[in-house]
Amino acid sequence: MIVYSKSSGFNNAAIGKLETPIKMIIEHESDLLAKKGGVCDALFNVERSNKFGETIVGGNEFKMFQATDEGEAAEQDTVVETASKFIEHIQFMKEFVITAEMMEDANYGIAADAKHRAENFVRAYYKTLNKVCEQALINGTTTRYTFAGATLRLDTADYMPLFSHSHKWGQNTETSGVQSNFFWGDIFGKEQGGSRAYTTDNFEEGLYKLVGKMRNMLDENGEPMGYTADTLIIPGNNPKLESIVKKVCGSEGTLGTGYNDINLHYGNWNIVVLPSWQPTDMRIMVMSSEANKNLCGNMLFNRVPLTVTNWVDHHTGNYIWNGRCRFGVGFGSYKHIMLAVDSTSEIQGADNIDD
């Protein structure tokens, strides 16, 4: 959604010819990009907000119902707040200028340069939303990351980075412990003849391990949550990795054999490529979309939608269009997503996938 604030009062025929067409171009470009979606829609829970920021509160689950004798009272159970995460909204702004000369020469329709600037203006807005979400995930092994002039807080409700081997469960409850959503090991390859071979067989085996890790992620009571991983997030710079992932997830039968064995991964995965993710090694993120939704995992809060104002600079005669928005990005949980790095040696902050 785009909000137009009322422009300052001016009476200029050239401006009158440009204002409405430019608004139409901005609206049209916005509609097209909104329909295409992006990283935000694919991987984040997008919510509206009317506050300075949003707080996500985590708690333990109710225990199982207990059998009760006739006439006896039910066992009382309570929910204990285990952690909370505050996501603050950040302001982003941009302007573009149509010079006085361009306005004067745009007698018939919109000058091509003015049209392109209006289109690029909207694309820059959606690019900002998606790039901020991308960078939040890509840099999830740290607690803070600066991007586009904003400092993103990438810790979760337990104050650990999104991806860590020291995540806490059961804080403020009777039992507690730590667990990992960051792993290293034989994810894509194995050592063969003194070199590391990357094959679909290796990844298929590594993916089963990650699926099991996701299923057995513990809730705040220490019980396995049983979520099914269904989303693979891959880098944009590794065609070998991308080929292996798409073959394993897109082939009906088992790869590399003449048998008619069923490929149990077929049809179970959504694959999302992050173009800005450019690691030098083989790594992948695995997510459960259901857990992401239920646990408030990846969150994008829209506080102020793109708000557009235009006016004339009386010093130069230039026509200025200004866009402003506010939104917050953060993580309310870590239990919905995992990061795995293919490595034969220990990765700092990660657990061995075979442990």
Portion in strands? 25-35%
Number of structural domains: 1
Structural category is: alpha/beta
Distance between the termini: 48 Å
- Based on DSSP secondary structure assignment, what is the total number of beta strands? 19
Largest sheet: 6 strands, mixed
Question: Which class in CATH terms?
Answer: Alpha Beta
| Unreliable parts | none
CATH architecture: Alpha-Beta Complex
Question: What is Rg?
Answer: 25 Å
Main sheet strand line-up: 14-13-15-18-10-19
Task: Fill in the CATH topology.
Answer: phage-related protein like fold
User: Which series of helices and strands comes N to C?
Assistant: EHHEEEEHHEEEEEEEHEHEEHEEEE
Helix count, DSSP H or I runs of 4 or more residues? 7
Task: Report the principal-axis shape.
Answer: globular
Mean pLDDT: 86
The percent range for helix content is: 25-40%
What report would you give on this structure?
The chain has 355 residues and is of the alpha/beta class. It has a single domain (2-59, 84-352), classed as Alpha-Beta Complex (phage-related protein like fold), CATH 3.90.1690. 27% of the residues lie in helices and 30% in strands. The chain contains 7 helices and 19 strands. Strands 14-13-15-18-10-19 form a 6-stranded mixed beta sheet. Strand 16 and strand 17 form a beta hairpin. Helix 1 (13-36) runs parallel beside helix 4 and helix 5 (200-215) packs across helix 6 (239-250). It is globular. The two termini are 48 Å apart. The mean pLDDT is 86.
